[in-house]
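User: tokens in, sequence out, please.
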């Protein structure tokens, strides 16, 4: 694995390159996990989960940090500093940034004073984003220049508009918009400074999203089908890549290869149930090709007579060999060998809940992949509600963590039992030599048994950095 630190000075947070993270990174012992509530007057919280198999509290929540206000829908999270700051000995990975999708507040959490018991450091009110004409903060990444950048999905009224906001990583004060160019819609992004590029994606109009998925809105073009290519230095939009309106519907999580010299990356398309490979061409422009498509199933007893897989997360191992994605509606988690990024090869698949289990209400009439409907999954006596959603992979690639909640309103629409019983966190054992996945039957965190009632666990972070937060220069 190639890659080098951002400068030749002292050591800052994270690792000099992905290879060092693999070889020198410790085994994860705790996971910070966002936990949202559905239609509740209680605040969301950040759960600290013990994932150390030698600990007496293994596979349990050992701390809960409530947010100051109810109604945030804390969703994704990011760091004030990461491996992009490795060359800065003064930088410190000390705070976790928790944007609230529904409230547009941004919660800043101190995780360095006591890593097992984080504390709330600051709450940035929605009005601060509103002053910049922005709302609905989503993806957070730290930058090498000492700033934090957060993608946004709306204007000050929540209507569709994509942009990015900069915030300093010490006082956590809003600075300015990263670009004066708005996009039609917004969602996720990933930057690759070695090629002076950032790629961003688009979900949909959040004022419609938060009312539930209306398939009429899909047909009316209220959901995204484009990738945006940005000049990293000038912040100019240099290219828009239209995806196929069927397979490219709702491009969500953007993942460049971890090797900072790589020109390759992938994006998962939720409603399109596909993976697109994007890359830099010989003439310097960027292109996106469809490389994986999960066929819809003909069904009865569901919202439509055809059921898409709905790919909601994708993650790449630090050695850039394996790609994993989750089909939240079908219920399968897949592993692909991406040694040749133009031709990913399926090497393993496991079912984790989903809408087509034998004991469910949906009957599959035609399936291009399966001969029979899968059994429901039970781990430690707990049936898994919902489907595989957010993913986090250990630095060595041997353990894949999975949560089952997507977004509370959509959870309630497609998996009402998830609201009643709560989400779960599972661990998947991974064969990093030959490929292969197996559910760890000794690990399950049941968020249905939380002291304040069931909650919806979503994104997971390791204190020292992970496969979806750290970017190398």
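Assistant: Sequence out:
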């Amino acid at each position: 694995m190639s890659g080098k630190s951002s400068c030749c000075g002292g050591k800052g947070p994270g690792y000099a390159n992905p290879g060092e993270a693999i070889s020198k990174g410790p085994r994860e012992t705790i996971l910070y996990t966002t936990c949202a509530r559905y239609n509740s007057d209680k605040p969301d919280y950040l759960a600290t989960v013990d994932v150390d198999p030698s600990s007496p509290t293994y596979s349990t929540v050992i701390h809960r940090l409530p947010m100051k206000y109810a109604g945030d829908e804390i969703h994704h999270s990011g760091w004030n500093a990461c491996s992009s700051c490795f060359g800065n000995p003064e930088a410190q990975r000390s705070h976790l940034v928790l944007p609230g999708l529904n409230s547009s507040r941004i919660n800043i959490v101190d995780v360095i004073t006591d890593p097992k018991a984080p504390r709330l450091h600051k709450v940035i009110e929605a009005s601060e984003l509103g002053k910049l004409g922005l709302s609905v903060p989503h993806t957070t990444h730290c930058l090498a220049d000492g700033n934090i950048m957060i993608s946004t999905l709306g204007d000050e009224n929540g209507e569709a508009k994509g942009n990015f906001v900069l915030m300093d990583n010490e006082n956590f004060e809003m600075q300015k918009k990263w670009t004066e160019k708005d996009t039609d819609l917004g969602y996720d992004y990933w930057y690759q400074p070695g090629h002076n590029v950032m790629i961003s994606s688009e979900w949909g109009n959040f004022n419609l999203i938060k009312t539930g998925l209306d398939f009429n809105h899909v047909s009316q073009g209220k959901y995204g089908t484009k990738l945006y290519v940005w000049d990293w230095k000038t912040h100019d939009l240099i290219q828009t890549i239209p995806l196929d309106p069927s397979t490219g519907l709702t491009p969500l999580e953007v993942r460049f290869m971890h090797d900072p010299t790589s020109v390759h990356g992938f994006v998962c398309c939720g409603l399109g149930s596909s993976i697109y490979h994007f890359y830099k061409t010989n003439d310097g422009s960027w292109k996106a090709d469809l490389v994986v498509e999960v066929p819809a199933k003909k069904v009865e007893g569901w919202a439509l007579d055809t059921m898409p897989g709905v790919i909601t997360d994708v993650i790449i191992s630090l050695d850039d060999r394996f790609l994993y994605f989750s089909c939240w509606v079908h219920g399968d988690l897949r592993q692909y060998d991406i040694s040749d990024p133009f031709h990913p090869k399926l090497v393993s698949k496991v079912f984790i809940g989903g809408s087509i289990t034998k004991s469910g209400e949906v009957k599959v009439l035609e399936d291009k992949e399966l001969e029979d409907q899968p059994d429901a999954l039970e781990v430690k006596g707990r049936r898994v509600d919902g489907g595989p959603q957010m993913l986090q992979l250990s630095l060595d690639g041997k353990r894949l963590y999975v949560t089952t909640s997507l977004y509370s309103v959509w959870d309630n629409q497609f998996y009402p039992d998830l609201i009643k019983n709560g989400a779960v966190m599972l661990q998947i054992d991974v064969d990093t030599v030959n490929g292969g996945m197996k559910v760890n039957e000794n690990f399950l965190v049941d968020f249905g048994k939380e002291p304040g009632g069931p909650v919806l666990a979503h994104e997971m972070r390791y204190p020292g950095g992970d496969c979806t937060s750290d970017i190398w220069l």
